[in-house]
Design brief:
CATH topology of the largest domain: Jelly Rolls
Keywords: DNA-binding, Transcription, Transcription regulation
Strand order of the largest sheet: 2-11-5-8-12
Number of helices: 13
Number of strands: 12
Pfam families: HTH_18
Radius of gyration: 24 Å
Largest sheet: 5 strands, antiparallel
Protein name: Helix-turn-helix domain-containing protein
Shape: elongated
Domain HTH araC/xylS-type: 196-297
Distance between the termini: 67 Å
CATH architecture of the largest domain: Sandwich
Structural class: alpha+beta
GO molecular function: DNA-binding transcription factor activity; sequence-specific DNA binding
Helix content: 40-55%
Length: 300
């Protein structure tokens, strides 16, 4: 197994690729001006954004290839592992990179809100695929940050650079929203698979064995990261995956409540609840009646 190279400081990354360190906590990398390097697996202690300037089909993550040609953006939060197994051959990287340390954001609104940018927790095969126009917008953001870094550090540097990073992230959020729309057919297929997954889950013994289905469980079964899955379902339907799970649960519960041979407690355990009172509370909240009241009204 390849060694994972750990880099906690941005200067370590710059030294590795041959990029000048203009600021200890933030850096823009134009890979076309960097030295040739060998593939490696790296764990980075800072936020990293890569804009790949190669045909997307040439980039392979896990078992999937990218399917767009215009350019691809990958977002990494501190502590994630990125890279390829070393094949022993040097290569010339292409594209751009933006590196910024969490310490650079401390005390800023972006530092407080950075977790709202869910794409830092997406998997590599859930990358952002850019049109040529979108790519131009992103590169302009890189240029603006680079220009500010080249001015030197003063009392305004952090405010201006953080504002430009936030602008770039907001553009990326807009472009991801566009991607969810333009990939509607793919999204509908995922939504259909999600609905089938829930249907089959409640028909099986899984609720009794492992409890109620979680968003993470469903995302893993669909080969998606929980955040990407959540954003996709929300954009496609207006409801979160948790709301879909709850709706399916209540739909299944209503059918089971008609079976008077089983007590409400038995039904609760069958559905995956550890405590029947939790089932009763949720059912009444969603339906307006307790399970017993719903059963009596249906019989009468």
């Amino acid at each position: 197994m390849d060694e994972i190279i750990k880099m906690d400081h941005i200067c370590q990354y710059n030294d590795r690729v041959g990029n000048e360190t203009l600021h200890p906590l933030v850096s823009v990398v134009d890979f076309s001006k960097c030295k040739s390097i060998r593939h490696s697996r790296q764990m980075l202690g800072f936020y990293t954004i890569f804009l790949k300037e190669v045909k997307c089909g040439d980039i392979h993550y896990g078992r999937q290839y990218y399917d767009y040609q215009e350019g691809t953006m990958v977002f990494l939060a501190p502590g994630q592992v990125v890279g390829f197994v070393d094949n022993g051959k040097p290569f010339q990287p292409k594209g751009w990179g933006l590196l910024f340390h969490p310490d650079f954001l401390r005390g800023t609104s972006l530092g407080r809100n950075i977790k709202n940018y869910n794409f830092f927790s997406y998997e590599s095969n859930e990358a952002l695929h850019l049109s040529e126009q979108e790519r131009g917008v992103i590169i302009e953001c890189f240029h603006n940050i680079q220009t500010e870094l080249q001015r030197g550090i003063d009392k305004h540097s952090q405010t201006i650079i953080v504002a430009n990073i936030e602008l770039l992230l907001n553009y990326c959020m807009r472009f991801y929203d566009r991607q969810f729309i333009t990939r509607s057919n793919v999204n509908k297929d995922i939504l259909s698979r999600f609905e089938n997954l829930l249907h089959n889950y409640f028909l099986s013994d899984k609720p009794q064995d492992i409890g109620l289905p979680s968003v993470q469980y469903c995302a893993e079964k669909l080969n998606l990261s929980p955040n990407y899955f959540g954003d996709l379902i929300k954009k496609e339907t207006g409801k979160s995956p948790q709301e879909h799970i709850q709706l399916k649960l209540i739909e299944t519960a209503k059918e089971k409540v008609f079976d008077t041979s089983k007590s409400i407690s038995e039904i609760a355990y069958e559905l995956g609840f550890k405590y029947p009172q939790h089932f009763t509370r949720l059912f009444k909240k969603c339906v307006g009646y307790s399970p017993n009241e719903y059963r009596q009204n249906s019989i009468n």
